[in-house]
Amino acid sequence: MRKQLGFRHYFAIGSVVTALVLTISFLNERIPTSRDFLSENWESDDVPSKSYKRQRKGLLIIGRGRSGTSFLSKMFGSGKRIFEVYEPLRFRNLTNVAKIEVLKSFLSCNFASSPLWQKDYFPPFWYLKQKYYFVTPSQHLACLKYRSGSTRCFPAEQMFTKFIDKCRYSYDSTVLKELTERLPDTSLSSLIPEIIDRSLSTDVRLLHVVRDPRGSINSRIKLKWMPDYEHPQFKKKVQDYCNGILQNIEFGLQLNESLQQRYKLIFYKDIATRPVESAREVFKFAGLRLSDKTLSWIENRTSPTKMDSRRQFKNPYSLVRDSKANIEKWRRESPPERTLIIERICKPLIELMEKISIEREYFLI
C-alpha cells in the first residue's frame, strides 16, 4: 500500500520548489540578454542632437580618503547634465601611464583607440560598477563574470559606442573624484600639466581637498585604515601621510599664473563651516551652474533633522552630517597621546594650513 505523504514531506517539497524558483529568478535578473542589457543601460531619452557643440568642462577632485572628496563629488553629481565619475582607478592595478590615460579619457569623454581598453580596463563596465570582467579582442567581446560562476558576453564595440555617446551627449561636463593615494607616485605633480592641458578640447580644472590631519587620521583609525598610536609603525605612517599632503600643497602654491587659474586648494573646514558659500566658490571655479536642486541637496546633508542624524551617523560612509559639529569631533575622540604625536610630526603641515587660512581671511581670497 502506497504510503501517504505527511505535512513535513509537502513542506520539504515546497521548499525545494521555492528555492528553484528563486534561483531561476536570480539568474534571470543577474544575467540579462545582450539586447536588454544594452537597452537598459545605454539608451537615453534626453540625448540631444549630436550637432550640439560646446566646450566640455572637466573637474578633477583629489584628496586623501576621509577629507571630504566624496561629499564634493556627490554635490556636483546632483547638478544637471554633470557626469559624475567616482574613483575610476579603483579595483584595477594600472601603470602610471595608464592611470593618466584613464583620467584624461573620462574627463574629456574622448576614449581614443587604446590597447588599455582591449585588455586591462573596460570603461563601460566601470561605469556600471562591475568589478569582475574580461575582454576578448579577437572575438570583439566584453564579458561579465557572475558570482554564480556564469559569464555573459556582449559586443564590445557596440557597448563602447553607446557608452561614449551617453557620456558626450547626455552630459555637458565631467566631475571626476579620485584619491591622492591612487595617483601616479601619489603626487599632484604627476597631474599637472598632464591633466590640465590647454591643447585638450575640454576645459579641465583641478580641485585639491585637504583636511586637518588630526581629524582625518582620527577618522582613518576608526575605519581601521590605519593603526593607532600604540602600533610601532604609527609614527612612520603619520610622517608619510603628512609629508605627502605638504608636498602637494607646496607644489600647488608654486604653479605659474596660467596654471593657478585652473587649480584650487580648499580645506575641509571651509566646506563644513560654510557649505553653501563653499559650494558657490567651487562651482564658479569649475565654470558650472549651481542649481536650486544642488542647494537643497547641500542643506539636507549638512543640516539634517535629529531623526536623520541618528540614523545616518551610524554609517561612517554616510554623507549626511552635522557639518559644523563634525569639524572638531577629533578633539573629543582622539586620545591625547595620539594627538600630541600627530601635532609634533605634522607641525609643518598644520602651520602651513593655518597660515593659508589666515591669509585668505585677511585678504578675502
Automatic annotation (TrEMBL):
Protein name: Sulfotransferase domain-containing protein
A Gene Ontology BP annotation from the UniProt entry: sulfur compound metabolic process
GO MF entries: N-acetylglucosamine 6-O-sulfotransferase activity
Domain spans labelled Sulfotransferase: 59-352
Transmembrane spans: 7-27
Alphabetical keyword list: Membrane, Transmembrane, Transmembrane helix
UniProt xrefs under InterPro entries: Gal/GlcNAc/GalNAc_ST, P-loop_NTPase, Sulfotransferase_dom
Pfam families for this protein: Sulfotransfer_1
Lineage: Eukaryota, Metazoa, Cnidaria, Anthozoa, Hexacorallia
Domain of life from the UniProt record: Eukaryota
